[in-house]
Amino acid sequence: MAQKKLLLIDGNSVAFRAFYALYRQLDRFTSPDGLHTNAIFTFKNMLDAIIKQVEPTNILVAFDAGKVTFRTAMYKDYKGGRQKTPSELLEQMPVIREMLADLGIKSYELKNYEADDIIGTLSKMGEDAGYKVDVVTGDRDLTQLASDKTTVLITKNGVGETEAYTPEHMKEVNGVTPTEFIDMKALMGDSSDNYPGVEGIGPKTASSLIQKYGSVENLYDHIDDLKKSKRKERLIRDKDKAFLAKKLATIDRESPVEVTLEDTVKKEPDYEKLRDLYERLGFKKFLVELNQDVTGGESTDAENYDYVELTTDNIAELDNLEEKEISFYLEMLGDNYHLAPFEGFSLKVGDQVYVSRDVALLQEMPLKGILENKTIKKNVFDIKRTYVGLHRLDITAGGLDYDMLLASYLVNNENNSNDLGEVAHLYDEYSVKTDLEVYGKGKKQAIPEDEEFFKHLAAKVCVIEKLKPELLKLLKDHEQDDLYDEIEIPVAFVLAKMEIAGMKVEAGTLIQLQNEFATRLTELENKIYQQAGERFNLNSPKQLGHILFEKLNLPPIKKTKTGYSTSVEVLDQLKTQSPIVSEILDYRQIAKIQSTYVKGLLDVIQADGRVHTRYLQTLTATGRLSSVDPNLQNIPTKTEEGKQIRKAFVPSAPDGYIFSCDYSQVELRVLAHVSGDSNMQEAFKTGYDIHAHTAMRIFHLESPDEVTPLMRRHAKAVNFGIVYGISDYGLSKNLGISRKRAKEFIDSYFEQYPQIREYMDKAVKEAREKGYAETIMHRRRYLPDIHSKNFNVRSFAERTAINSPIQGSAADIIKIAMINMQKKLEELHLKTKMVLQVHDELIFDVPKDELETMKKIVPEVMQSAVSLDVPLIADSGWGHNWYDAK
DNA sequence: CCACTCACG
DNA sequence: ACGTACGTGAGTGGT
């Protein structure tokens, strides 16, 4: 018989998590009759994800019966002082239980007991009957139930993501066994359940005491063995509290539940009731799923769009087109549209939808004319992809006007999917499936037969058009029309042209480097193996860790989740202890360059001798671009060996130039601008070396001559730290100084630049009020975590609130510069191509006779991209390859 | 598919 | 007491 699996869910806890997961969406999630639905919706999503993961045969969802329990009888303030459940969640609780019933899932509550105790009791019943048990909750108390048969899944931020607590994982996290965890809590108490333990004992101390003594009882039996200390006094004084806390923390595994395991068997859903419920709640997504469940995967007809197949026979219908606005979708299978095979297209003209697998039709009249006609506006999903795809078919797209992907990214970039279906689902539009659903992935990825494929293409082009008004309205409401019209749309074309141009890379130069590096790597390997006394895989951190820390007995400075850390940070500190360490560092450095850059680049040089990266325009949270296949934004600059790679990047013409121009301190200038700090603005206006200026101020020096290189280095690190949302810990780690010293630097900095501190406070405050941070061009980044009660999660969001407007505004600025630059190149009919963007730097492929023009116009255009309260400065360099362009 | 490591701004 | 710098992509090993 198959293994029976019992899934136990802490209903209140999961509902609570579900509610806050979409708290920001509270107002968007309401049913037609005014009920909030965010928790119900997310609860169902979480439930689906968990069921998919666990595949249970039996399920029970436990709920708390009320405030009064046997624990409140023991201790009247148990869970006292808790904020009461928001009414917006409370109203959803009965509906969740109704939904569970309709889904065929048992839910249960027991008077006088908490959900924890129901779960504790049923998990024991399950274990005794030979079931495998999984418990799902957001409450770490339940981890005490973990055993070889029971796993406790603690919900994490993402929907359906959980952290699995097995006894082993428990040991790693808390250093104690699940049962000992109860004793740990006895000493610590629990502030969220509002009961104290022993004063002054937190998780660390509790864990080490329990590891030593095994239990609270045993600890107190040996209390006299402890050295006289404040802690000992407190342990003795708070003994009663500790024993009470232990009782409160212990989950009752023998509670009088009136449920049998038979009652928890998962039943068939009641589809009719579910349909009624989903309709009442306005859950389109689940209604679509329900239809698929009932019909065995097929959507119902209501979700289909009519279409006709376009062929040479009916293409004449497109002659003399009157429409001035159409929608278009070009399908290529795979991400890399420079190479991906064409699979088909769809076209929506008025109410008529055409689909076809035959992309050659696009090259025929009248279709080609329509696609190239600038006065016929086209709605698409991903202008850049479409432009490049059509370019490969010798079509110069004109009139690409609306981009659903870009619009959606600007409206909310929390979900950075570039799948049309997934994006549509964000706006409650489920009439289109995702590519993953239709085409599959990996080896099995394939275009389905005509009917399913055409349906999908038709749905795509219809949805582009259908969601357009809503997305445009959101852009307007967010005051993002300019960002969209004047920056992102134009920059999409600039990027398309850059990608198409590509950059010439000389394979010969790389092969020469490959040989040199191969020799050096062999030498280093031999030396390392000799000192290690054996051969091993140097690229395996695990094997390397074994050699360094077990065989050679070097001190392990840092651990990772899975073993010893062997990162640069660690190895740097071990350098002095053994010569093998420096050689490993050298090996690592060269091996990285060899595999990622030399070999990596050789693999992606295309037939035209060039590399054509793709810039991802809708990925980052801040508005920066990213670059893939290959990534040309992380070509080495720091080490000499690394920099050699740049010699392979050359201009198209042998006597041409690579011309590079980068903004100087653009992020700090943005900070000076947005903060309005007069001291920092003054420094930029007078053209000081900003880091030296900072050094003078924070170290209270009279003249620039007194600034030592070390002071400047420290000041520079502080400036960077400020941009990142500084902490004394981070700065101390970066500079290798004490935390105290780091704090002094920071305090001194804020004394000298008081408005910077005001900016940081304001950035956090505004993010808290609005729920997002914003750049100078109104690019948004939502920060729901800013309300988290987890210190770390919240702190991270606060630093992000400080950093995002700075990094994001710098991204806005260079995008404007790129648009103006491309315009200038075209106006002047230059043959020069803009080929790369590396966040604060633009790189051009320049014919010899255009160099002088470029020297003049590029800095001009970049410096005048926007007008800030401080000047923007851009510095140029050029040479016959990228290495020399400095 | 994840963890680790390391390349860039 | 907590346990951290901000934003990325790619190669490798190991499950």
TrEMBL record:
SMART domains: 35EXOc (SM00474), 53EXOc (SM00475), HhH2 (SM00279), POLAc (SM00482). The keyword Ion transport does not apply. Residues 642-850 form the DNA-directed DNA polymerase family A palm domain. It is an enzyme of class 2 (transferase). GO terms for biological process: DNA-templated DNA replication; double-strand break repair. The keyword Endoplasmic reticulum does not apply. It catalyses: DNA(n) + a 2'-deoxyribonucleoside 5'-triphosphate = DNA(n+1) + diphosphate. Residues 302-476 form the 3'-5' exonuclease domain. Keywords: DNA damage, DNA repair, DNA replication, DNA-binding, DNA-directed DNA polymerase, Exonuclease, Hydrolase, Nuclease, Nucleotidyltransferase, Transferase. GO terms for molecular function: 3'-5' exonuclease activity; 5'-3' exonuclease activity; DNA binding; DNA-directed DNA polymerase activity. It comes from the Bacteria. Residues 4-267 form the 5'-3' exonuclease domain. Pfam families: 5_3_exonuc, 5_3_exonuc_N, DNA_pol_A, DNA_polI_exo1. Its EC number is 2.7.7.7. Belongs to the DNA polymerase type-A family. Single-chain monomer with multiple functions. This is DNA polymerase I. It comes from Lactobacillus kalixensis DSM 16043. The lineage of its organism: Bacteria, Bacillati, Bacillota, Bacilli, Lactobacillales.
